[in-house]
Specification:
Blueprint lengths: L1 E5 L5 E4 L17 E6 L34 H21 L9 H17 L7 H17 L1
Antiparallel strand pairs: 1-2, 1-3
Helix pairs in contact: 1-3, 2-3
């Protein structure tokens, strides 16, 4: 099993075919896939969980272990909106107030924001950014 990344959008593709390097990305249509590394397992997420990892394969570069996340374009575009929500919350409730809110409460509030976004309820808030912040806070609380 091989993992390829699109040079244009960064989307991953997993394949048994070792020769997809000039194939077309299934997400953006760009013909710029490049092999990142070969997995020892046929389970594509084995590398994410730290099992059976290989070193990365990059032309004209040293070997290294693969990273476990990608700061793709969509994450970068969401961060300013999330930052605005975080700043407004810090001004309203205090900088570290989020640490006093349980993981469960954050998940429930995220679900409410998502429901508002899905149903078109106009609360005057950026519902998706609020949901993303609540999910991020729940993840951060889970890591404690």
């Amino acid at each position: 099993m091989y993992k390829y990344l699109c040079s244009a959008c960064g989307s991953p593709t997993y394949s048994e075919d070792p020769d997809l390097e000039n194939d077309v990305c299934r997400f953006c249509g760009s013909p710029m896939l490049h092999k990142v590394y070969e997995l020892k397992s046929n389970f594509p997420n084995a590398d994410f969980w730290g099992e059976e990892r290989e070193t990365t394969i990059k032309p004209n570069a040293g070997k290294q272990s693969p990273i476990h996340f990608s700061a793709r374009d969509y994450i970068a575009r969401a961060l300013p909106r999330m930052g605005t929500v975080e700043y407004d919350g810090a001004m309203k409730y205090g900088r570290d107030n989020w640490q006093l809110i349980s993981r469960e409460d954050n998940i429930e509030h995220a679900m409410l924001h998502l429901a508002n976004a899905l149903t078109g309820v106009d609360t005057g808030e950026d519902e998706l950014a609020h949901a993303a912040c609540r999910i991020a806070m729940a993840i951060a609380r889970e890591e404690e």
